[in-house]
Amino acid sequence: MAAMTAVVADIGGTNTRVALTHGTTVRTDTIARFRNADHADLSSVLKTYLSDRSETVDAACVAMAGPVHDGVGTLTNLDWTIDRSVIAAATGAGTVAVLNDLQAQGHAIAHLPDDKLDVVFGGPTSGDHAARLVLGVGTGLNAALVYRTERGTLVPPSESGHISLPVQNEEELRLMTFLGRKHGTPGFEEALSGRGVENLYAWACHEAGTLPPGFSAHQVMLAVAEGSDEAAQRAAHVFVRLLGRLAGNLALIQLPYGGIYLCGGVARAFGPYYEAMGFAQSFLDKGRFADFMRQFAVYVVNDDYAALTGSAWHLQELIETA
C-alpha cells in the first residue's frame, strides 16, 4: 500500500502550524505557521495552505487546544469551532480526525527519538504497553494518559488543567486567595501555564509589597535567567514546586510506569531550572509513598512539532484499522 499523503495541523491559542506528511513522517520542509488573528476560521487556514501546493491529500488530522467530543471541538482560548465535516470540505481528505492537542502529543510519544527527550527525574521506564502520561504546559495546561494496545494507541480526552489548586501551607493559601480574587476557585492552569507564570509573578510582587510591572511570561523568564529579580525567582520556585506536585499527584492516580512527559513551550522554558528549584523533591513529597514515587521517570519533550507527528501516526492507525 502506498504511503498516505496527509495534512496535519496543530492549533494553539495564537498560531496554527500546518504540514504535509509522507506516511507517518512529517515533511519538515512543508511546515508553515499562520497567525490565527489573520484568519476567520480553520477552514481559511487550510485552504490558504493547500492553495500553494499541488498535492492531493488522502487524510487530515487537526490537533487543537480544547475539548473534543464526537469529532467537534471548541478551542479554549480562541473563538473557533473545529468540525470533521468542515475539515473534509476544506481539504478533500477521505479520512479526517480531530484530536485534543494533548491527545496528539500522546500519539507521538512512542515515536520520538531519544535526543528529543530530556531526563528530569528517574531512570528506565517499563515496556511498550505500560501507560504513559503526557502533561502539557503552554498557553494552557492539560494532561492525558497514553495506552498502547494490540489494536492501536488509546489517548482518552481530559481537561485536567482545571482541577482545583491544592493548598499545603500558609504561603499557598495566600496564593490561592490572590488568584481567587480574579478567577473564583482557581484551577492549576491559573498557576501552571503561560498566564500562570504572569499570575505567579504578580502574586510574588504583591507579597513583596511592590507594584508588578505587567511582565509577560517571556519577560518573567528573562528576569529568572538574569537572576536579579527576587519576585521572578520566587515565582519560578513556586511554579516548579507546584508542577512537581501535580505530576506526582497524577502519577499516583494513573500509575504511568511508561513515564511522564512534560511538553509545551512553558515546560521547555523551565527545563534549566527543574533540578535547582526542586522539582524532584516536590514530586517525591508523598510521605510514606516517597520511595514508591521513584519508579516513575519524568522527561521534557523538546520537539516543537510532536503534535504534528502524533497526528500523522493517529491517521496511520485509523487507516490500518479501517
From TrEMBL:
Q: Which InterPro entries match?
A: ATPase_NBD (IPR043129), Bacterial_glucokinase (IPR050201), Glucokinase (IPR003836)
Origin, by domain of life?
Bacteria
Family of the protein in this entry: Belongs to the bacterial glucokinase family.
Supply the SUPFAM superfamilies for this chain.
Answer: Actin-like ATPase domain
PANTHER family hit by this protein:
GLUCOKINASE
From which source organism is this entry?
Mesobacterium hydrothermale
What's one Pfam family here?
Answer: Glucokinase
Protein name per Swiss-Prot or TrEMBL: Glucokinase
Q: Which UniProt keywords apply?
A: Kinase, Transferase
Q: Does the keyword Phosphoprotein apply?
A: no
CDD domains for the chain: ASKHA_NBD_GLK
